[in-house]
Write a structure and sequence with these properties.
This protein has 2 helices and 4 strands. By secondary structure, it is an alpha+beta fold. A 4-stranded antiparallel beta sheet has the order 1-2-3-4, covered by helices on one side. The longest helix is centred in the middle third of the chain and has 9 residues.
């Protein structure tokens, strides 16, 4: 089932960075996210709920402004 919040996500294993591309077009990088957290999010029923409960407020983040950086 497609998420109503998360359009796409990408995990950079080398930097432990989880990039979330929202349906709104906003892009955020969450830093130092363990790969197992990413894998759990990938398999979760609701990506938006998982994001709110396990990512936001738990990991430092940075808003990405350059649209050319979409994976």
């Amino acid at each position: 089932m497609p998420s109503t919040v998360v359009h796409r996500m990408h995990y950079d294993k080398a930097h432990a960075t989880l990039r979330i591309i929202f349906v709104s077009g906003m892009v955020y990088d969450y830093k130092n996210v363990p790969e197992e957290v990413y894998n759990t999010m990938k398999s979760s029923f609701s990506k938006g709920t998982f994001l709110n409960e396990h990512i936001k407020g738990h990991y430092a983040y940075e808003k990405v402004t350059d649209r050319s950086v979409h994976p």
